[in-house]
Write a structure and sequence with these properties.
Blueprint lengths: L3 E2 L10 H12 L10 H20 L7 E4 L2 H14 L5 E5 L4 H12 L3 E5 L8 H7 L4 E7 L11 H11 L4 E5 L18 E5 L10 E5 L25 H16 L1 H22 L3 E3 L9 E6 L4 H10 L2 E2 L14 H5 L4 H5 L1 E5 L6 H22 L5
Parallel strand pairs: 1-11, 3-4, 3-5, 5-6, 6-7
Antiparallel strand pairs: 2-8, 7-8, 9-10, 10-12
Bound molecules: pyridoxal-5'-phosphate.
Pyridoxal-5'-phosphate binds next to helix 3.
Length: 383
């Protein structure tokens, strides 16, 4: 049975070329980049090249790029660093952030910081709603660019520009884990002070990420030790992860328009086929959302049963974000005002440039049969 993978927001399959680079760092270029003999220097040079390419993709200076262990570390580090520097005691974020952001911010809240959680209105968070909550006491605004469950986009360029006019001392952190390599990012246009990226969402490997830090002179590192990454993040570098990341960046960035247009076309095809074939569904992703995420509620069909039925046919999807899927009910869908029946039946399909329309056709026919069977058992629409 050929497997079909539609869970690319949870993680992506590494490109073969990226896996080759990881192998190179494990088998041949395994030397410590801090070693001062030529083998070590070669590893260090390659890392610097990757830092330069990464910087170029977000219009940053290479010295602002810090390699980390992934999105969660980047986000935590950004928030801790921003709050250590601040005079204000107020944080602004949204209700539908990833847990990597929500849980560290809740920790500060328990310690006495004031936190404003912006609620989506009509399924969206407008930059203006975030701006209205900012005052001169706001130490940090931390928001995700693209929501990992629905694909909603926040206009970060408008947010950053206006926020810096209103309160220049407020730090801005952008969680760009789901937008990097899907939307164009420019740290100058959005005035980000910090920006977080994760390698395993762009066909590199797990345990690799990047933190962009605008003003490194004011940066407060979390990891102290041997002074790697110019002292911004101690610990011997994960060179297999960084090499794979560099290759994935190169492959995505070199073909940015072609790849994102291809994925958008797949998503639109998926949406139209669902509409044509299955009744009583609700799209939880906006049409103008990011290209790779399509969240749909199948009313009267429990998502978990659908997920496992599809799994038995070799098709992999998600009921919410991978990290929160073991908890009850998505806080993101709840924040968008969905009813219980819609939350219970919500499936997230997330696509990549490795998917095809034929895979979508197979998924729709399995889905149609599964939804009909479940609705028959639950007597949906016949009560
Ligand atoms: N932020 C968002 C929006 C995510 O989707 C994820 C992962 O799902 C993370 C942060 C955490 O990234 P990582 O898995 O690299 O720690």
């Amino acid at each position: 049975m050929k497997e079909i993978y539609f869970d690319n927001s949870a993680t992506t399959k590494p490109y073969p070329e990226a896996a080759d680079q990881a192998r190179l760092a494990i088998e041949e270029m395994f030397h410590n980049p801090s070693s001062i003999y030529s083998r070590g220097i070669a590893v260090s040079r390659k890392m610097e090249e990757i830092r330069e390419i990464t910087a170029e993709t977000i219009n940053a200076k290479p010295r602002s790029i810090v390699f980390t262990s992934g999105g969660t570390e980047s986000i935590n580090t950004a928030i801790i660093s921003a709050l250590r520097n601040s005079r204000g005691r107020h944080i602004v974020t949204t209700e539908y952030e990833h847990d990597a952001t929500l849980n560290i911010i809740k920790k500060y809240e328990r310690e006495g910081w004031k936190v404003t959680y912006i609620k989506p209105e009509n399924g969206k968070i407008e930059a203006e709603s975030i701006l209205n909550a900012v005052s001169s006491d706001t130490a940090l605004v931390s928001v995700m660019h693209v929501n990992n469950e629905t694909g909603n986009i926040i206009d970060i360029n408008l947010l950053g520009t206006e926020m810096k006019k209103k309160s220049p001392g407020t730090a801005l952190h952008i969680d760009a884990v789901q937008s990097y390599m899907k939307l164009r990012l420019d740290v100058e246009k959005c005035s980000a002070d910090y920006l977080s990226i994760s390698g395993h969402k762009i066909h590199a490997v797990k345990g690799t990420g990047v933190l962009y830090v605008r003003d490194t002179s004011r940066f407060n590192p979390v990891f102290l030790g041997g002074g790697q990454e110019k002292g911004y993040r101690s610990g011997t570098e994960n060179t297999p992860g960084i090499f794979a990341f560099g290759k994935a960046v190169e492959l995505n960035y070199g073909d940015f328009n072609k790849k994102t247009e291809y994925i958008r076309d797949l998503r639109d095809y998926f949406r139209a086929s669902l509409e044509e074939n299955i009744e009583n569904i609700r799209f939880n992703s906006p049409e103008e959302g990011v290209c790779h995420i399509l969240n749909v509620s199948f009313k009267g069909a429990k998502a978990e049963i659908l997920l496992h039925t599809l799994e038995s046919r070799g098709i992999y999807v998600s009921t919410g974000s991978a990290c929160s899927s073991k908890k009850k009910g998505s806080h993101v869908l709840r924040s968008l005002g969905l009813r219980d029946i819609e939350i219970e039946g919500a499936i997230r399909f997330s696509l990549s440039s490795l998917n095809t329309k034929e895979e979508i056709d197979s998924c729709i026919s399995e889905l149609k049969a599964a939804v009909e069977d479940i609705r028959m058992i639950t007597k949906f629409g016949r009560r």
